[in-house]
Design goal:
The structure is a single chain. It contains nine helices and six strands. By secondary structure, it is of the alpha/beta class. The protein folds into two domains: 140 residues, HAD superfamily/HAD-like (Rossmann fold, 3-Layer(aba) Sandwich); 76 residues, Orthogonal Bundle (DNA polymerase, domain 1), CATH 1.10.150.240. The longest helix has 22 residues. The radius of gyration is 17 Å and the shape is globular.
Amino acid sequence: MPAAVVVFDAYGTLFDVTAAARVAAAEPAFPQLAAVWPRLAADWRRKQLDYSWLRTIMGLHADFAQVTAQALDWALAAQGLDDPALRARLIALYDRLETYPEVPGMLAALGRAGLPAAILSNGSPTMLAAAVGHAGLGGHLAAVLSVEEAGIFKPAPQVYALVGARFGVTPDRVLFVSSNGWDVAGAAAFGFRTVWVNRAAEPVDRLPHGPAHQLPDLTRIPEIALS
């Protein structure tokens, strides 16, 4: 049965979370990043997710902008970098992340097929509005949903419930797409049909409710959504 709505995670799925560090490393003002930006980007992303989960467990929610900044502070300290200008530049670039190359064409194909697309993200509304606006994706999206409406981070089921509340569909009519195995597991446990975008060809996470589909990129999403 075709999906009634296709819902995407944002960071790492539509937007390349390594782009901020990569772009800054190419700028003459920050030569200290040239050799370390891949590690800094990986640490930044890892701590961003770790802090979201730990805050959820501790009942100490903060919006994703704060979590992202605190994760960056850890990643900079791990590389021995203490440069306020660099920190400010990286934070600014996070609001202007590049999309993966196939994203605009894939979203346009969903639109031609009459399938609404949406984002469901840990990102705060302000962060998501900046990223979506910079990438020019707003015209392709029926909704941009933030976990701030639920007050808790993914993979809490309250977050996935935001989709049904917004679109009035049952979970089995939702195709949920994420590059994060843990996010796919949470969405599948909620009852969504799931696609894991496994760009790095990693093993499947040893969690209940694995992905229904596994793809190397987003190109085939319209085909799967219509099947």
